[in-house]
Design a protein that fits this description.
Elements lengths: L8 H8 L1 H8 L9 H19 L5 H5 L2 H17 L7 H11 L4 H7 L32
Helix pairs in contact: 1-2, 1-5, 3-5, 5-6
Length: 143
């Protein structure tokens, strides 16, 4: 599991409402939200986004993006809603499809069709070259 997460339980409660969060996560029917279930959904959302975007961005730069935090919150709420075979609310399902669906924003970001504003990309994605010349008089030397 990634050590950097992109959303929190509080952000999920703001999107789903505290009662909605408790209702979807309360698997043992105790009347309180199950933090383990919520943590699993946060981890799944983080790993899903990371799997697509870590080739272009670092974990810390992704965590600093408000847009990525929103995407992770929507994804975590979506995963929480479908956890027990329930359908997610239509607004969350539509937002999740816009973000993570085929040709969604996350896929376009991963392919390089769009970029995150004010979030630097990994340096390794920048084309580079070197002006190193090899002196053929010393064949045993390595670079």
């Amino acid at each position: 599991m990634a050590t950097t997460v992109y959303t929190t339980q509080a952000k999920m409660a703001r999107l789903l409402s505290p009662d909605g969060l408790a209702n979807f996560s309360d698997h043992d029917q105790s009347g309180t939200p199950d933090t383990d279930v919520i943590s699993d959904c946060i981890a799944e959302a983080t790993e899903t986004i990371a799997a697509l975007l870590w080739k272009r961005y670092t974990a810390n730069t992704l965590a600093s993006s408000v847009l990525i935090q929103h995407w992770a919150t929507v994804s975590a709420c979506y995963f929480l809603c479908i956890r027990r075979g329930n359908g997610p609310p239509a607004s969350i399902a539509a937002e999740y499809e816009r973000i993570m669906g085929k040709d969604g924003l996350c896929e376009r970001l991963a392919s390089g069709n769009i970029t995150l504003a004010d979030v630097p990309m990994k340096v390794c994605n920048v084309p580079t070259f070197s002006n190193v010349t090899i002196d053929r008089r010393y064949p045993r030397e390595k670079i």
